[in-house]
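Tip: read the tokens left to right.
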């Protein structure tokens, strides 16, 4: 492609609404343009990147025996209602009515649709195992679209689904997909990390997230440098007695007393007023679990872990109670809830509360707190569990050594679903004995857009993007420094044609503009190899070859050029 004929609208300044580097550079380098909040157009360079990522995905999925399908984006709500996810997804699910008044939904994922397809077309164990995948646009009513294509309302996803006769078969399919994911991310040049994760609304009991460490990441993972343990902070266990600072058990128990805290409801301000550490406070959080109120007690300096709480309660829906519900349950406004005197409400407590004595809680009364509260004497609960977020002061759940918590971007997620969907949607088969059984399923998702954005987040410099050859929009860029010079122009044209015929994906900057602008655009777009043709080198019979990643420059003859570029973009050959 000649740059003069291409749509590559580069920008000098960052877009005002861009918060992270990938969003800034994708817009500035002419990969994407925003249509509306959460919805982007992919320009030629951006589409080429996506296509190369899709090619890698298809090659690795096909190599594992997976078969590609293409499923509809418009779904009947009845299938979603059968699995219960119609209500669980809530406002995230985009609903609309057709001209006949029939309700339809836009698919944010396709578990229901693929399971229904298999239910109607697979009858015997002889047709299993089966792995189907697609690369499809998904939709969600994102409450706060941000970070460009990383959190958008419309996104491209590769989702695969395995169907097996039994758990052993599902484990084998899961291993195939896990290994394929590792290959995909390696080939895309991503510094990925597989970690233990929570299945969430997908269901099942085992899942792994494939995370890319990045400052802009919205997810956090726990990493142990000693034993290499890694997990999402949503599932990382907090060991009791892990050395985290806080009050221990024992000592004289003082009489409970009410103190006035007019207009003061936050942990920090209450602690400041009472001249105590936040570790002496217990916060009481009122939740609704499948519509029923539940009070969670957590030490004041810790954060509640809603994923752990939801799993412990085994509920379908968990949400913080609204102000009206809190007043109905506690008799007090938000910020003054406490366990003492709480009626008709299940009380569960994090392990951090178990050994605390003489602590501070809300008084279930406006502008008041209780001091010297003790479990067993002033209120009772026998439900203690690990229900908090892990902190940097905790120790590794596996080996007990120090941990690190880092920001990451989720680029892939694998799930062992079991029979949740196959039972609900009738995806059953006849086994060898003629007995009907539900297929055992796995599910495997990759964010195609996120691979591109994550790569940019982890591979850039002050001048722009640094693409790996595998997913770069072009592998090589030929730059004619002075197109008015006939010799420079002819050599550049010949090199461009020769590289293209030789199977090297090449962009030719033939624009009649200054060399400075060409170099700036080249670094911004981030093509791995630059071939620079200037007047002086043309007379010497050489060209300049410069690597975007290292900045290394070498002079090379035209005869050696093609083989040298091939060795750079595909060093394993």
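Filled-in amino acids:
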């Amino acid at each position: 492609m000649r740059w003069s004929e291409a749509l590559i609208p580069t920008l000098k300044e960052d877009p005002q609404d861009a918060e992270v580097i990938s969003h800034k550079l994708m817009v500035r380098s002419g990969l994407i343009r925003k249509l509306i909040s959460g919805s982007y157009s992919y320009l030629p360079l951006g589409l080429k990147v996506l296509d190369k990522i899709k090619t890698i995905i298809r090659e690795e999925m096909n190599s594992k025996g997976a078969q590609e399908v293409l499923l509809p984006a418009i779904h009947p709500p009845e299938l979603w209602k059968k699995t219960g996810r119609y209500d669980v997804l809530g406002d995230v699910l985009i609903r609309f009515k057709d001209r006949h008044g029939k309700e339809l939904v836009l698919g944010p994922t396709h578990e229901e649709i693929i399971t229904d397809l298999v239910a109607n077309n697979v009858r015997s164990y002889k047709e299993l195992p089966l792995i189907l995948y697609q690369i499809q646009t998904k939709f969600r009513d994102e409450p706060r679209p941000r970070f460009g294509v990383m959190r958008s309302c419309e996104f491209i996803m590769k989702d695969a689904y395995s169907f097996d006769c039994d758990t052993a078969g599902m484990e084998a399919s899961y291993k195939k997909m896990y290994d394929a994911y590792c290959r995909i991310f390696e080939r895309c040049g991503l510094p990925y990390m597989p970690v233990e994760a929570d299945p969430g609304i997908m269901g099942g009991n085992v899942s792994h997230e494939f995370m890319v460490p990045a400052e802009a990441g919205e997810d956090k993972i726990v990493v142990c440098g000693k034993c290499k343990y890694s997990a999402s902070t949503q599932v990382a266990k907090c060991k009791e007695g892990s050395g985290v600072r806080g009050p221990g058990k024992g000592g004289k128990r003082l009489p409970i007393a009410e103190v006035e805290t007019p207009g003061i409801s936050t942990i920090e301000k209450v602690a400041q007023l009472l001249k105590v550490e936040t570790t002496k406070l217990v916060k009481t959080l009122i939740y609704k679990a499948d519509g029923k109120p539940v009070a969670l007690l957590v030490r004041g300096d810790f954060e509640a872990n809603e994923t752990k709480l939801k799993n412990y309660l085994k509920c379908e829906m968990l949400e913080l109670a609204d102000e009206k519900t809190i007043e109905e349950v506690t008799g007090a406004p938000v910020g003054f809830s406490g366990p003492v005197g709480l009626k008709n409400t299940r009380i569960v407590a994090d392990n951090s509360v178990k050994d605390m004595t003489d602590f501070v809680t809300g008084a279930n009364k406006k502008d008041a707190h209780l001091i010297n509260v003790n479990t067993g004497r002033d209120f009772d609960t026998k439900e203690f569990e690990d229900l908090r977020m892990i902190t940097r002061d905790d120790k590794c759940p596996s080996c007990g050594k120090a941990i690190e918590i880092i920001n990451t971007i989720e680029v892939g997620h694998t799930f062992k679903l079991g029979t949740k969907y196959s039972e609900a949607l009738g995806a059953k088969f006849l086994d060898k004995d003629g007995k009907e059984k539900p297929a055992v399923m796995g599910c495997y998702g990759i964010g195609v857009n996120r691979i591109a954005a994550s790569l940019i987040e982890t591979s850039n410099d002050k001048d722009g993007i640094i693409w790996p050859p595998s997913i770069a929009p072009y592998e090589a860029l030929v730059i004619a420094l002075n197109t008015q010079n006939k010799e420079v122009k002819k050599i550049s044209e010949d090199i461009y044609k020769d590289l293209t015929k030789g199977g090297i994906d090449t962009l030719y900057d033939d624009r009649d503009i200054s060399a400075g602008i060409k170099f700036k655009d080249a670094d911004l777009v981030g093509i791995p190899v630059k071939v620079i043709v200037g007047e002086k080198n043309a007379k010497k019979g050489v060209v300049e070859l410069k690597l975007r990643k290292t900045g290394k420059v070498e002079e090379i003859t035209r005869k050696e050029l093609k083989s040298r570029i091939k060795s750079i973009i595909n060093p394993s050959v």
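Residues 242-247 have pLDDT under 50 and may be disordered. The first helix runs from residue 21 to 28.
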